[in-house]
From TrEMBL:
It comes from Hevea brasiliensis. Keywords: Transferase, Ubl conjugation pathway. Its EC number is 2.3.2.26. The keyword Transferase applies. It is an enzyme of class 2 (transferase). It holds the Pfam family HECT. Residues 8-24 have a biased composition (Basic and acidic residues). It comes from the Eukaryota. PROSITE patterns: HECT (PS50237), IQ (PS50096). It catalyses: S-ubiquitinyl-[E2 ubiquitin-conjugating enzyme]-L-cysteine + [acceptor protein]-L-lysine = [E2 ubiquitin-conjugating enzyme]-L-cysteine + N(6)-ubiquitinyl-[acceptor protein]-L-lysine. This is HECT-type E3 ubiquitin transferase. Residues 1-24 are annotated as: Disordered.
Length: 1032
């Protein structure tokens, strides 16, 4: 940096280890490369400039030549075209040759020349009628090449002229020649004239037009014209554009037609069928398209594109009119006509199913205009879209076009064509390829339908008016018997090849058969064995059980959060396999649960058929842990687990809840003082004042006798159990008016309870809490509830088959109506029902305007189910709702969702069978000198075994405070039953004492009686005394 006085230069050292020569060489190479690239870029610039100038000069020269020929054309034929005559169109005339040379559709003068030329051509043909001699002269065959070329050019120039001037002609393009002679009509009429199929050049012209992609031009013309459409004053007359399209689409590349195949992107299907509501614009075109050959050709063309996963759709008209939805709507609107033709082929139905399936998969779910049926609520929750996903909203009219097209007639026609040649009796030779293809097409189509359209519109049709259930069952049954599930055709499913063959058939079969079971009556199911035999149903149960276990345990899906995301429409397209698996797990679980209900009504298969084989102690230990596979199964398909295992899980959940709330603490905050002769009022007043937290804690009871004195004894749990038995017996007594009895002495809420108790809904809330407290503390109470009321604790809906338990006579009348062969309207029934409560009759409408709506053969099924709904659901809705609110204060919904209604009754009351004395003896302890072989103990068990069921229940209540034993046996009695010697010696005074008990410890204090008769007498006296806790 500073001068040091040393004149020598210091050698520079490259710390990179390279010499200066090497560094200079690299620099030289880089400079050379850059210079070479610069020279190349200059050459490319010069070459591009030369090409541009050459093109520009060429264009200028062509335009100059066009202008020159145009001027010559005007000089020859005159500005007013007075020199044009018939010979001007002949092969020897230069008129058309010159016109085509300079014609520019965007030039106003050229456009006018073409219009006037076409006007003259139409006039000449109208006067003479021979268009072949007009263009071909005397000998068309000699000049056919020149004539064909000129006719092609004339037709395309006319279409091009309309396309380029469509904005100016937008009011004219949809007019008919009978109402107007505007330029657009004249030009289009000439094209119609030239492509008449009777003319020798027709196919050549159409082929040329197709090669020039005229449908892309027609699409733009129609889109502009439809916005300015005027009412057609010529009834029955089609616009020129519509007639032209009808003639062009008839050329489908089949003999004798020689039109070439074109790019699907520019085809009629892609360009024209994606126009919204095309058939409203062109009804005559719809009739032409719906003919068998045309519809089959264009549908097959689209099916090939679907199979090849080719995107051949143009840009959407707008966000609410996506091209795939418009194509779907237009295809479905004509599909019904095509399928109804007697010669409609199986291949046509397969192609149609493939195309509509593909298009429906891209469609957002269409919401029902009416309320969705309750049985689909589970799927509706899971199908909710993600908040951050942009929702695609179709135009309401477009939605309506699609949903109206997939009607009962369409579904019947499609299934009839697909299943028409399939045997419903099965085959010893297995499934043929055609049957597998038909099942695959139907399942793929209907699976997408279920995800897209409102289910209540189509389920009844599929269940009762088609052979879908029987065909699918025949397919599944044969696959199951041969232990080989046929792989459904991949091109129909758009799913990977390794997808299980049973997945898609179950996704369709389960919801349809489930819907059928809601309408089938008991006689049809059990006696007539319709639609499936009981033997087949047993096989079906095994298939469903194995499928569910495979989906939920062997190869489990994602958990709930991920599943809900999958059921979103776009997520479904990204991962359809997981979405279908989730759907199958839901619908198969619902169907298997429904079949279990049928088996509970009248057993046709062992309950163990519903249980999976892999449930063990490890499974049970995992079931109580959130986020585990076992816990997920308990929520989705609890019936796969044996009842005893579920009870163990339920008891462990209750125990954990009691421990969290300190239910076994030493000190008790809540102490009830209950008068035995006012037990219900005292319990209601004191329990209603407790918070939910207090209800979960310990409650101790002191009984007050009729003299106002508290009974002796300290409540260690036994007195509370006695209280619970007495209060439930009093509260649920039909004499109190809150509950009524069925013919089988089963309890359900009294619909007229409000006429007896002003605060009846508060009482139902209290009773719900009371029942929940008994279950929470593990106390069994002898209250037999009707099954249809227990379903309300599970928040389920009741159907026709639940009605016999409430009103067998009404059920018989409704079944009579269902099978009535005559004219039901003659019975003078209306959509009203008469309620009769305590002698007061009221009339209610089942539907708005029901008093004027007569029951007919068409609506009788609706009437039957509305009556059932009124009796089973509507009448007791308020009472059930308040009871449920009280019940859920202590018992969580997911706890009892593990059990069906019959199992829930067992949880409440225990088994109705006789007391298992041997089980009690096996799990009994002894104290005070007694042992299992003591002579008093031997006498005791002989006496107890000889008691009637009623006396045995009284004994059990005497020693435990509850007349029902533990649900899983006396092994689970806490603490175990114990017999203690009551007196130290066998003196007369000691032997004169009665047996006593300590119910809080499940303890029997038994004196050492000398004889069996004395023991029986004293024991019966003690258990029948009902002296409360004053007895000593």
């Amino acid at each position: 940096m500073f001068f040091t006085g040393d004149p020598t230069t210091r050698k520079r050292v490259d710390l990179g280890g390279r010499s200066s020569k090497e560094r200079d060489r690299q620099k030289l190479i880089e400079q050379t490369r850059l210079e070479r690239n610069r020279r190349l870029w200059l050459r490319q610039q010069n070459s591009a400039a030369i090409k541009i100038q050459k093109c520009f000069r060429g264009r200028k020269a062509v335009e100059a030549e066009h202008d020159k020929v145009r001027d010559q054309f005007y000089r020859t034929y005159g500005k007013s075209y007075l020199n044009i005559n018939r010979q001007s169109f002949g092969p020897d005339s230069e008129f058309l040759r010159n016109l085509f040379f300079f014609f520019n559709a965007q030039n106003n003068g050229d456009f006018t020349v073409l219009v006037e030329t076409c006007r003259l051509l139409l006039q000449l043909v109208q006067d003479n009628g021979d268009i072949i001699s007009l263009f071909g002269g005397v000998d068309y065959l000699t000049n056919h090449a020149l004539v064909d070329y000129r006719v092609k050019q004339l037709a395309f120039c006319c279409i091009q002229a309309v396309y380029h001037n469509r904005e100016q002609l937008k009011d004219q393009v949809l007019m008919t020649p009978w109402e107007s002679s505007e330029p657009a009509v004249v030009l289009l009429e000439v094209v119609v004239l030239l492509i008449d199929q009777k003319l020798p050049w027709a196919c050549k012209i159409v082929g040329y037009l197709l090669q020039r992609n005229v449908f892309t031009l027609f699409r733009e013309i129609v889109l502009v014209g439809k916005e300015n459409r005027r009412p057609n004053n010529c009834v029955g007359k089609a616009p020129s554009l519509e007639r032209m399209l009808s003639m062009i689409i008839s050329h489908v590349g089949q003999k004798p037609c020689i039109c070439p195949h074109i790019d699907p992107l520019c085809s009629f299907s892609s360009q024209m069928l994606t126009i919204p509501f095309l058939w409203q614009l062109f009804p005559s075109l719809k009739e032409v398209f719906a003919t068998r050959e045309l519809s089959r050709h264009y549908t097959h063309q689209m099916a090939l594109c679907v199979q090849g996963h080719a995107n051949v759709l143009p840009n959407d008209v707008s966000a609410e009119y996506p091209g795939y939805a418009c194509l779907l709507g237009n295809m479905l609107e004509t599909a019904g006509v095509t399928l109804s033709q007697p010669d409609c082929s199986f291949e046509m139905a397969i192609d149609l199913a493939a195309v509509t399936t593909f298009l429906l998969e891209t469609l957002p779910p269409i919401k029902s205009s009416s309320r969705e049926t309750r049985e689909n609520s589970t799927l509706a929750e899971d199908d909710a879209a993600l908040p951050d996903e942009m929702e695609i909203v179709l135009n309401r009219d477009l939605e309506q076009q699609i949903t109206n097209a997939i009607n009962s007639r369409f579904l019947l026609q499609l299934t009839n064509v697909l299943f028409g040649e399939i045997s419903l009796n099965g085959s010893h030779y297995g499934l043929d390829e055609k049957e597998v293809t038909a099942v695959g097409a139907a399942c793929a189509f209907l699976n997408v339908i279920f995800n897209t359209l409102p289910l209540e519109r189509i389920m009844t049709i599929l269940a009762y008016r088609t052979d879908l259930v029987r065909v699918l069952w025949n397919f599944m049954k044969q696959c199951h018997e041969k232990q080989r599930w046929s792989s459904l055709p991949e091109q129909l499913l758009h799913l990977p090849a390794d997808v299980p063959g049973w997945l898609l058939p179950l996704a369709v079969f389960c919801p349809v058969y489930k819907h059928m079971l809601m309408i089938v009556d008991n006689e049809e199911f059990y006696e007539q064995e319709k639609p499936l035999s009981l033997k087949d149903i047993r096989c079906l149960i095994i298939i469903l059980r194995q499928a569910l276990w495979q989906l939920l345990w062997v190869n489990p899906m994602a958990h709930n959060n991920a599943v809900k995301q999958m059921m979103n429409t776009s997520a479904y397209r990204r991962n359809p396999v997981e979405s279908i698996k989730h759907r199958v797990s839901v619908v198969a679980s619902e169907l298997l649960s429904q079949l279990q209900d049928w088996n509970n009504r009248r057993q046709f298969t062992p309950p163990s058929d519903f249980h999976a084989d892999g449930v063990d102690d490890f499974f049970i230990s995992q079931a109580v842990l959130d986020g585990t596979k076992a816990n997920d199964i308990m929520k989705r398909a609890p019936f796969l687990v044996p009842f005893t295992s579920r009870v163990k899980i339920f008891n462990s959940q209750l125990l954990a809840a009691r421990q969290r709330n300190g239910a076994h603490g030493v000190f008790t905050r809540n102490r009830f003082r209950i008068r035995r002769d006012h037990i219900l009022e005292d319990a209601y007043n004191q329990m209603s004042a407790l918070s939910e937290e207090d209800l979960r804690g310990l409650i101790r009871v002191a009984f007050v006798n009729e003299f106002g004195v508290e009974e002796a004894g300290i409540d260690g749990g036994g007195i509370f159990k006695d209280f619970m038995e007495n209060i439930t017996r009093a509260a649920f007594d039909v004499q109190y008016g809150l509950f009524k009895e069925t013919a089988d002495h089963l309890l359900y809420p009294n619909p007229g309870s409000g006429m007896i108790h002003e605060q009846h809904l508060q009482f139902f809330h209290f009773l719900g809490t009371l029942l929940a407290k008994a279950m929470f503390e593990g106390i069994l109470v002898d209250i037999p509830f009707a099954t249809f009321f227990l379903s309300k604790l599970k928040q389920k809906f009741n159907y026709l088959n639940d009605l016999p338990s409430l009103d067998p006579e009404l059920y018989r009348h409704l079944i009579f109506l269902k099978h009535y062969q005559g004219d039901i309207s003659e019975l003078e029934l209306y959509f009203v029902i008469v309620n009769n409560e305590y002698g007061e009759q009221t009339e209610e409408e089942l539907l708005p305007g029901g008093r004027n709506n007569r029951v007919t053969n068409e609506n009788v099924i609706t009437f039957i189910h509305l009556v059932s709904n009124h009796r089973l659901n509507f009448q007791i809705r308020q009472q059930s709702s308040h009871f449920l609110r009280g019940f859920q204060q202590l018992i969580q919904k997911d706890w009892i969702d593990m059990f069906n209604e019959h199992e829930l009754q067992l949880l409440i009351s225990g088994s109705l069978e006789s007391l298992d004395v041997d089980d009690l003896r096996l799990h009994t302890n002894y104290a005070g000198g007694y042992h299992s072989e003591h002579y008093v103990i031997e006498m005791f068990w002989e006496v107890l075994k000889g008691f009637s069921l009623e006396k045995q229940k009284k004994f059990l209540k005497f020693v435990t405070g509850c007349s029902r034993g533990p649900l899983l046996g006396f092994k689970f009695l806490e603490p175990l039953f114990c017999i203690q010697r009551a007196a130290g010696s066998a003196s007369e005074e000691a032997l004169d004492r009665l047996p006593t008990s300590a119910t809080c410890m499940n303890l029997l204090k038994l004196p050492p009686y000398r004889s069996k008769q004395q023991l029986e007498t004293k024991l019966l006296y003690a258990i029948n005394a009902e002296a409360g806790f004053d007895l000593s």
